[in-house]
Amino acid sequence: MLPLVTPARALTPAESERTARQLTLQAIGDEGQRRLANARVLVLGAGGLGGPALLALAAAGVGTLGIVDDDVVEASNLQRQLAHGVPDVGRSKVDSAADAIARIAPECRVYRHREHFDEFTAPHLLADYDIVLDGTDDFPTRYAADAVAATAGIPLVWAVVLGFDAQVTVFWANPNDGSPGVRLTDLFPVPPADDGATCSVAGVLGPLTAQVGSLMAAEAVKLITGAGTPLLGRILVVDALRATYREVPLRSARRVQEPISGVTPPPRRVAEGSGRQPTLDGYPQPTPARSPQPTPAGPPQPSRAEPPTRSVPAEPVSASIWHSAAVDASSRARVTQSFPTSLDAPSRESEDARQAAANVAPADRTVEVAELAERLASRAAGGPDLVLLDVREPAERAARSIPGSIGIPVGLLDRASVADLDRRLPVVVHCQSEARARRAASTLAELGFADVSVLAGGMKRWNEAQ
Questions:
Q1: Cα–Cα distance between 2 and 280 in angstroms, integer?
Q2: How far is CA 430 from CA 187, 342, 385, in A?
Q3: Per the domain annotation, does 168 fall within a domain?
Q4: 452 and 403, same domain (yes or no)
């Protein structure tokens, strides 16, 4: 792979001293270190993956880092999000991570993007960077990152972690050495069904997020300097519980014409309810009708070494990963069966769901924190009653809960568990954010509850308002 960035000016004595052990590596050396100093890396999420990646990149000598995150630090983050400490609880993750970077590499330029990354904000955010690292936690955001990185012609380093399992790879639509490109849509032609498996429900091993975040940083360093062989077309599958590492090859589905003998491709689906433009068979893409404003103070524009083509046509995927001659059915199963649909990073529900009206599905009806507080106060004063249902796990409720709420974990919701609830009363469901509550609201509607709504922003927003 050709180096992604041209070398910068000579290193300062302080930079040379701090990176001395890296300078001695033959594959990097002085020229590679100057490429790192000239590089601009955007990291999506400053959580369990993005935080360690940011610190590793800053320590490695990357000259410009951009951080995208609209979340704040919570105490439950500290077990795995190493960029933050106890004094940072309640602070913006972007600000906390930027301060941590400054302590490691004060010469590193840090651009703070305190906003959500989606198909509307993605084009102007990615425009100023050479490479992007995706540590986000939902598939709409991941597809947006993949689509806009492909259009910009830049590589995307991608990873997920849940429980003791992780996967790491590199997506790049048009590699600068002319080799075949691979995209997220080759691995997941359609978004996996949301099974509610989040870090708060399934748990996550803290040291594994640090390990995987560092692997992401290492891939970025290799791409910037041209050292070694990146994980392009290869998925590194990590099982921390068994201490095993294995690779699964991945080819572009668009280059494969015939399915593997005996393998029947699954029916294609179009994602529903995302509120996003259904192009690329339902994958989120930038919407030209809504053009975001450019970043007010973007990073400088250093020159690039033989830049790749910066325009990739948005063509439909012609074959799914099941057709790939490089990924057989058993290999694909090993990747996707344990593949987390959500990981440790900022979460954000669809904007359409926040604007729910009374005539929409129960999962899309929302109640704001202020309204719920008023209704609870009215109930305490003898006013109308309601059912406040907390569908988080018992450990989460033990840490903090809303007084007067009833706890039934979302995985246990069935006709028997709700038998004692009055179906005539309005029900407000909440979880930590909104994902599990929406799933629970749909279940309650199926069980005969007529008036069900979701607490907008969940316990996270409730706690912020207290």
A1: 29
A2: 33, 18, 17
A3: yes
A4: yes
Domain interval for residue 35: 13-337
CA distance 230 to 72: 32
Q: Using one digit for the tens of pLDDT, what is the confidence trace for 387-438?
A: 999 998 887 788 889 999 999 988 788 888 999 999 999 999 999 888 888 8
In a domain, 318, yes or no: yes
CA separation (Å) from 17 to 13, 57, 61?
A: 6, 17, 11
Whole-structure pTM value: 0.61
Q: How far apart are CA 367 and CA 428, in angstroms?
A: 8
The CATH number for 404's domain is: 3.40.250.10
Question: What residue type is assigned to position 122 of the chain?
Answer: A
Considering the domain architecture, whether residues 296 and 390 belong to the same structural domain is answered as: no
Task: Match 């509550």 to its residue by tokens.
Answer: 437
Same domain assignment for residues 322 and 415: no
Nearest CA among 72, 55, 6 for reference residue 460: 72
Whether 261 maps to a domain, the answer reads yes
- Decide if 248 contacts 235 (C-beta within 8 A): yes
Which tens digits make up the pLDDT trace of 248-260?
Answer: 998 876 554 333 3
Of 410, 412, 406, which is closest to residue 425 (Cα–Cα)? 406
- Cα(427)–Cα(408) distance, rounded to whole angstroms? 13
Query: What does the pLDDT read at residue 396?
Result: 78
H-run or E-run covering 131: strand 131-134
From the list 443, 450, 388, 448, the residue with the least C-alpha distance to 413 is 443
Q: What is the number of domains present in the chain?
A: 2
**What are the E-state strand segments in 327-426?**
366-367, 387-390, 406-407
Q: Please, are residues 342 and 266 in contact by the beta-carbon 8 Å criterion?
A: no
Domain boundary, last residue among 285, 313, 337: 337
298, 178: one domain: yes
Residue 325 shares a structural domain with residue 371: no
Confidence of residue 201 (pLDDT cuts 50, 70, 90): low
Over residues 12-28, mean pLDDT: 93
Q: 210-237 as b/e, with b when 16 or more CB fall inside 10 Å?
A: bbbbbbbbbbbbbbbbbbeebbbbbbbb
Residue pair 256/325 in contact by the 8 Å Cβ criterion: yes
Q: Out of 126-130, 152-156, 267-271, 420-424, pick the least confident.
A: 267-271
Same domain, 325 and 367: no
SS3 content of the chain, % helix, strand, coil (to 5): 35, 15, 50
3-state secondary structure of 222: helix
* pLDDT, tens digit (0-9, with 9 covering 90-100), for 374-390: 999 999 999 999 999 99
Is 323 inside a domain boundary? yes
Both 430 and 315 in a single domain? no
